[in-house]
Amino acid sequence: MDINVFRGIMSGVLMFAFLGIVFWAYSKGQKKTFDEAANLPFEDEHEDRPNLGTSSSLENKKHD
């Protein structure tokens, strides 16, 4: 077995692994999971953090 045969086999294996990941990522079963993950930055942060009694300057400008 030559090193070039090994490289060819590994190229084929990695190509099929890549295509498998692409098909998994674009499958319909993953859409809901990815949509929820995409909206995580927009969730309300105040639910998780305790109220420290201080407001940021950005919050003060928003209320003015």
How would you portray this structure in words?
By secondary structure, this protein is mostly helical. It is 59% helix and 0% strand. The protein is built from three helices and no strands. It has helices at 3-25, 31-38, 57-63. It is elongated, with a radius of gyration of 24 Å. The N and C termini lie far apart (75 Å). The mean pLDDT is 83.
How does the SSE layout of this entry go?
Blueprint: H1 3-25, H2 31-38, H3 57-63
- Give the helix level as a range of percent: 55-70%
Quaternary state of this entry equals single chain
Tell me the span between the first and last alpha carbons.
75 Å
Uncertain residue ranges: none
Secondary-structure element series: HHH
Largest sheet: none
Structural class: mainly alpha
Q: What is the percentage of strand-forming residues?
A: under 5%
Rg over alpha carbons: 24 Å
Shape, per Cα inertia axes: elongated
Give the averaged pLDDT, no decimals. Answer: 83
Number of strands: 0
Number of helices: 3
